[in-house]
User: Fold Transposase, IS605 OrfB family from Korarchaeum cryptofilum.
Amino acid sequence: MVGECLKRAISMKITSRKRLYELIYRELREKFRDYPSHYVHTAITVALGMYKSYRRLSRKRSYVKPPSIELLKVILLDDTHLFWFNWGSLKIATHKGHLVIPLRLHEHAEKFKGWQVKGSRIVVLGDEYYLHVTFRKVVEEREYEGVLGIDVNEKSIDLAIIKPDKVRFVKIDISEAKNIRDRYFKKRQSIQRKTRGKVKARLLAKYSGREKRRVNTILHKASKVVAEIAAEEKVKPVMENLKNIRERIKYRRRMNRRLHSMPFRKVQFSISYKSIERGYKPEYIDAKNTSRMCPICGELNKPNGHIYKCRKCGFQADRHFVAAWNIATKLQMCRPLPLAAKATEALKAEVERIVIKC
Ligand SMILES: [Zn+2]
Assistant:
């Protein structure tokens, strides 16, 4: 079914769901008379998705292989009329009645028992079949006793935990992720220079996949640490709104690559859902001046290297901690907290450092 929809979409250059539907629905219903009608709907959705992503790609690159049914590696199971997920098995409505397929659970699956099933898809990798299931859970927000300013950087995620009676600074070292990215960047450059055509495409794909997986592992571990600290300290996470990040950092070409290869948004997202799961929903604040303002006297200074130094009051600290502190206090509720003295002490004492490795 998907194959037929795909052929039609390609030959007639159709991207509108309605048009493809009008063209092909009756025909497919006739041809696959024994199948539930939901199959046709899903086939149209999948074929359109494949065709559209092909069009998007071919605008960016010179040669992209047109989609064909052999390339179909993912089967959408979004419809609750056709599929029923059960722990240990999947029931599917087919032209020959209901079919029950047993499945082996992933080791992390236990965690989602009792959650609501939202949708799923079958992914084919070689001769193995995987079932991806999306779960949903309603979490109750917990009471918080303070705020957690989070400053995400290339080499570290810096935290300022600020409560009425306590201040704590933590640096989570993710420089390993940056090292991996830099190494692979060099490798990619040399592949670009030394190889051509299919070999080049294969090598590039291989390395970019491996790089992403390794970097993701580190970022996930780091986000988990952040969420655990939020839960343990009972504080509300505060992050900067990244909408204006490109304007904020004046970038050169090299800076541009560094910015785009660093998945700030992804890290924020991952911190966000991991904290929400634990009952602490993040807030986002406008990032203006968070890296320039002196948290003690309010003077604007330009940080020089890793050290922030205020020319007015002489306050001095790691620039990322200053940013995290400012991010935290930008949230209206904690403005009046009298914590400057405590925070300065906390910064002078040995600051906690957590190093995340692959
Ligand atoms: Zn100052």
User: Anything to note?
Assistant: The chain has a mean pLDDT of 85. The first helix runs from residue 2 to 12. DSSP finds ten helices and 14 strands in the chain.
